[in-house]
Write a structure and sequence with these properties.
Blueprint lengths: L1 E2 L8 E3 L10 E6 L5 E2 L4 E10 L3 E3 L1 E12 L10 H4 L5 E11 L2 E3 L2 E10 L12 E2 L3 E12 L7 E9 L12 E5 L14 E7 L12 E8 L3 E6 L5 E5 L2 E5 L9 E5 L18
Parallel strand pairs: 1-8, 4-13
Antiparallel strand pairs: 2-10, 3-5, 5-10, 6-9, 7-8, 7-12, 11-12, 12-13, 14-15, 15-16, 17-20, 18-19
């Protein structure tokens, strides 16, 4: 639990103008424009309140929450319901800050700065923000301005993102592969004779870095029109009750999709190596 004494917190108060909306507004403005943070950093920002007249309140609170949730979607109907009730939301972080006790906010714009450390709960670790088909990992700030039962309270939620801190040296997991007519399947049949070999620099890499490797076409009895490298997402979720899976899954760590065509037997461009973006 964290507390902020408004007597020691500087405020920025501006007089409202005729162009301002004549209603009370509440907003949470983060210092980082991209809203991306790493574990151990502090989430710094400002609570911005505008009121056309003096505003009495019963307290201002700021909370930080992060959790892992299992969610249902149209893609997992009949698959994931079996263990949906068995998996409860996992809280990763929870912090509470009493910004102000009951008092009055003057008319105009009031900015209240805040700073909350991004530290996980005991025996927990922060996972990266993820919005998938089955799993949802999210982090958010929520500000509540309490008012009397005759007046509606104010509430604002601001989502932010958590990423793993980049490591200076990350172990590589290289892998080599080969492809031939015996290792691929074709719906149309009649796969021409070819042989491709390649190398991936690492099967585990950061999303902030390029996915690198090389492909060598050793031979092909037909002219090659294009070679496409496809990165396929596979999301698997499960517990003792069963598993749910979304996306195409391949036994090999690499899936190559390529098109062979005999319409163009002469290529105008030489073979070029190209780095694939993440």
């Amino acid at each position: 639990t964290f507390g902020i004494n408004l007597k020691n917190v500087p405020k920025t108060v501006k007089k409202c103008c005729s162009s301002c909306r004549m209603s009370v507004t509440l907003d949470i403005i983060l210092r980082k424009p991209d809203k991306v943070y790493h574990e151990g950093e502090s989430v710094i920002g400002t609570i911005a309140i505008f009121t056309p007249s003096d505003l009495r309140h019963d307290g201002i609170n700021l909370s930080m929450d992060g959790s892992v949730n299992l969610q249902l979607s149209s893609k997992n109907v009949g698959i994931i319901e079996a263990f949906y009730n068995a998996v409860k939301p996992i809280p990763l972080i929870s912090a509470f800050c009493e910004v102000s006790s009951a008092g009055r906010i003057p008319a105009g714009h009031t900015n209240i700065p805040f700073e909350l450390p991004l530290q996980p709960r005991p025996n927990r670790s922060l996972h990266e923000t993820y919005h998938g088909v089955f799993i949802n990992i999210s982090y958010s700030l929520k500000c509540d301005v309490k008012r009397s039962f005759l007046s509606k309270g104010l509430q604002k939620t601001q989502q932010f993102f958590v990423q793993y801190a980049p490591k200076p040296t990350q172990p590589l997991h290289p892998v080599s592969f080969t492809m031939s007519p015996t290792s691929v399947t074709s719906k149309s049949g009649g796969v021409p004779d070819f042989y491709i070999r390649g190398h991936l620099d690492s099967t585990s890499c950061s999303v902030l870095r390029p996915f690198t490797g090389h492909i060598i076409l050793e031979r092909c009895e037909m002219a090659v029109r294009s070679i496409e490298l496809q990165l396929v997402r596979v999301e698997t979720c499960g517990c003792a009750e069963g598993y749910a899976k979304d996306g195409k899954y391949f036994n090999d760590s690499l899936h190559l999709q390529f098109t062979l065509s005999s319409r163009h037997r002469n290529s105008k461009h030489p073979d070029r190596g190209r780095r694939c973006p993440t």
